[in-house]
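Retro notes (design track)

What went well: tokenization of the new backbones is finally stable.
What didn't: we kept losing track of which sequence belonged to which structure.
Fix going forward: every design gets posted as structure first, then sequence, in one message. First example under the new rule, 215 residues:
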């Protein structure tokens, strides 16, 4: 299943981080010394030009952000928001927890935390979705403002991804063969698709790509 990740980027600190590691992607050479060889090989394959858009979050109070970050999957879509609108989107490719990389990229905040729960992005694009439009589709109150990092549930995510056409055609979450077969069986049966089956059928595209082409 794909999630929508909400990420405010309007204050001075997040604007600086966005400029440093999204608008100006990070070189793989800098990243390499902080990560495992397996992850480096994956990133090298995903980013042949050698630069990677990178984002991260701090653990937060009582690890609240860490727990949200743990739910992030390949293919999830991050929406960056500021000044009353979502201004860009990007797709998650991989993630890692790495304090040393975060310190090198963004240093530490006033509480001594760093943005160590990292995720790597692709398909970064500018969008313009006013909060009013977003809130209507997501089912939020009209005056809702995106104020903190959040990973939305699958029902809200599906509505947003479909309405604003934000799903990736390249990166898909990993699912098992049995999950893929379950989604296919539901489609062949012609019955109504619930949210879970819809998301699994999309993820099944990724399974097929890996099964047929090894990618």
């Amino acid at each position: 299943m794909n999630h929508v990740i909400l990420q405010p980027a309007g204050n001075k600190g997040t604007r600086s981080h966005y400029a440093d590691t999204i608008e100006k992607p990070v070189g793989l050479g800098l990243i390499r010394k902080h990560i495992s060889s397996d992850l480096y090989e994956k990133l090298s394959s995903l980013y042949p030009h050698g630069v990677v858009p990178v984002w991260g979050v701090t653990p937060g109070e009582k690890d609240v952000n860490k727990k949200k970050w743990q739910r992030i999957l390949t293919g999830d879509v991050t929406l960056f928001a500021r000044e009353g609108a979502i201004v860009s989107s990007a797709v998650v490719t991989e993630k890692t927890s790495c304090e040393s990389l975060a310190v090198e990229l963004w240093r530490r905040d006033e509480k001594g935390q760093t943005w160590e729960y990292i995720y790597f992005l692709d398909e970064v694009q500018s969008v313009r979705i006013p909060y009013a439009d977003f809130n209507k589709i997501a089912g939020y109150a009209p005056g809702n403002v995106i104020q903190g990092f959040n990973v939305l549930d699958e029902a809200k995510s599906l509505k947003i991804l479909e309405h604003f056409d934000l799903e990736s055609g390249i990166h898909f979450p990993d699912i098992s063969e049995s999950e893929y077969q379950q989604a296919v069986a539901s489609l062949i049966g012609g019955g109504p698709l619930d949210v879970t089956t819809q998301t699994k059928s999309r993820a099944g595209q990724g399974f097929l790509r890996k099964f047929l082409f090894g990618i």
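Added context from the reviewer: Strands lie at 4-8, 26-27, 51-52, 54-57, 77-82, 85-97, 117-130, 150-151.
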